[in-house]
Design goal:
globular; Serine Threonine Protein Phosphatase 5, Tetratricopeptide repeat; disordered N terminus; Arc Repressor Mutant, subunit A; Rossmann fold; 4-stranded antiparallel sheet; 6-stranded mixed sheet; 22 helices; alpha+beta; 4 domains
Length: 545
């Protein structure tokens, strides 16, 4: 059990899919790949592993790793952060001013995972991805705790909410545009790791490019207490970055700084900005002090791919994948690029997959997802892609577990909450689904129409037809070609006894559409909205005849 003392005779400790051999000190991922820690971090882990389940004093840890050397608490803290980054936040419990305890489970396992050396044909890849995922997310497969009486209402909201606005490109060059977008997006990601801080999705705040005033209105639209804004200009071989933290309610600049430097990577300055913003808010940034270096050309290709993928068309997904593959050509260990490739396949499969092409997309996507998790087991986007691909495949249980694990790793991951909501809508806990979609809408205030459809469909299944109507009607108004929205709205009309309106809406459906023209209407509905619940499927199919 987590937190219980592990006998000294136990040689293998497990942390989800990761194993630690106490004798050899080998740290191994679920697919048999050895994981590396900084030397001091590895020593700290070894001491904690010998005393797993027991409190180890700070002084004992410092003396074991830095004997006779004067050091600060920061050195120990950075080692703890480094270990948590690999094993997960729950692996080490902190006892303030006392020490740390390693939480592990006893593993009756060999040191290597059983699938090492197997071939990677389609079904083996799917099997590996499933096992890798199930092991990695085994601690996170329970539904999100939700107040069922309030059916998904938000409670105990954090005290501080922050949004990062796009950095203004003062140089008006293409390179600076991609760099400034990447800086804003990465800063948002880093701030999302701070416990007790709600961070608005960059997908929402990125729409305020070039805005120089009206920050109070922006903060109200985003639901943010604080805004981070800045400018970037290239001067010869240097970048000049100005950044400030603003309280828009009173117009006060809480903190500002200028950075003049020559560098090839954005990560160093971005990590420093993130830390100083958090310090200004009197919060602790629980993240590694040094980020892994990524080839600057690979990073630029990733940003180009992200820009294309945001256009959300089949062609855009294919184009984005070209850029992501170029990123991997520059740096084949770039986990974000591999995960992004997996996401494009998942979105493509969800949008247009059927028959053999569906399985081909899922096959390719799972290979990329597995590679991303091998490279970075703590990357939320990688588990999001696993969830998306399993949802496209119709495996609700694995999709639910993947989505839960993604938001466990990043509690501000709006798309992760939306994926969890959509999956739970189709075959999970409806209260969890309602909580999750409402959380997604808070984190992504300028959310897409699909969020509205998901919430309306959840209310429909809960029998709250009047509440569902407004949302489903809005979803259809925003996208009149969205077939699941049209069918759901028609079914909701029928439940409210408005048969004429339901029939009028159904008559607007394009009967030549490849989904609606299936021989069996039930089959077409099952493909469009793959519910587990037979009653819901039958209700939707009935109204679309």
């Amino acid at each position: 059990m987590l937190g219980e003392s592990v006998p000294k005779t136990a040689e293998i400790l497990t942390f989800g899919s990761i194993t630690y051999n106490k004798s050899s000190r080998e740290l191994t991922s679920g697919d048999g790949v050895q994981l590396a820690l900084r030397p001091q971090s590895a020593e700290i882990l070894a001491v904690l592993a010998e005393n797993a389940g027991a409190l180890v004093g700070r002084e004992s840890l410092v003396d074991a790793v830095w004997p006779g050397v004067a050091t600060t608490d920061d050195s120990l803290v950075q080692c703890i952060v480094d270990i948590r980054r690999v094993l997960g936040r729950e692996s080490i419990e902190t006892f303030p001013k006392k020490g740390y305890r390693l939480n592990a489970e006893i593993a009756v396992l060999p040191a290597k995972s059983w699938w090492v050396g197997m071939s990677t044909n389609r079904w083996i890849v799917i099997g590996v991805a499933a096992v890798l995922f199930i092991l990695g997310a085994s601690r996170f497969t329970s539904p999100v705790n939700v107040d069922e009486d309030n059916q998904g209402s938000m409670s105990s909201a954090p005290d501080k909410t922050i949004a990062v606005l796009p950095f203004a490109n003062l140089g008006q060059t293409e390179n600076l545009t991609f760099f400034s977008d990447g800086l804003g997006e990465d800063l948002t990601t880093d701030l999302s790791q701070v416990e007790g801080l709600t961070v608005i999705s960059y997908a929402s705040s990125s729409g305020y490019q070039g805005v120089e005033s009206g920050f109070r209105n922006i903060s109200e639209e985003l639901g943010a207490d604080y805004l981070v804004r800045g400018t970037i200009r290239q001067q010869a071989s240097q970048y000049r970055i100005n950044v400030s933290l603003v309280n828009p309610a009173d117009g006060v600049t809480i903190w500002s700084e200028r950075y003049d430097r020559s560098f090839n990577y954005s990560f160093d300055v971005q990590a420093q900005i993130a830390k100083e913003v958090v310090d200004a808010l009197s919060l602790k940034l629980d993240m590694p002090a040094v980020k892994p270096k990524v080839d600057r050309h690979a990073y630029k290709m990733l940003l180009r791919g992200n820009e294309r993928q945001r256009q959300s068309t089949l062609e855009a997904y294919d184009d984005a994948r070209v850029y992501y593959n170029r990123a991997i050509a520059f740096d084949d260990k770039y986990a974000r690029a591999h995960a992004s490739i997996a996401v494009t396949y998942g979105r493509r499969a969800m949008a247009n997959g059927d028959g053999e092409s569906l399985h081909e997309d899922i096959d390719e996507g799972l290979q990329s997802a597995v590679r991303a998790i091998q490279l970075d087991p703590q990357l939320p986007l990688a588990y999001f892609s696993v969830g998306l691909l399993n949802l496209a495949l119709g495996d609700i249980d694995k999709a639910l577990a993947a989505a839960r694990h993604a938001i466990e790793l990043d509690s501000n991951f709006a798309e992760g909450y939306a994926l969890l909501a959509e999956t739970a809508l189709l075959g999970g806990d409806l209260n969890e689904a309602l909580y999750s979609i409402r959380r997604a809408k808070v984190l992504h205030p300028h959310y897409p129409p699909t969020y509205t459809w998901i919430e309306g469909s959840i209310l429909f299944q809960l029998g709250r037809y009047e509440d569902a109507h407004e949302l489903l009607a809005e979803a259809v108004e925003l996208n009149s070609q969205f077939l699941p929205g049209l069918i759901s709205l028609a079914a909701n009309y029928e439940k409210r006894g408005k048969i004429e309106q339901a029939n009028q809406l159904i008559n607007t459906l394009d009967k030549n559409d490849k989904y609606i023209s299936y021989t069996s209407t039930l089959d077409s509905i099952r493909f469009l909205i793959p519910h587990r619940r037979t009653a819901v499927l039958n209700s939707l199919a009935k109204i679309s005849h």
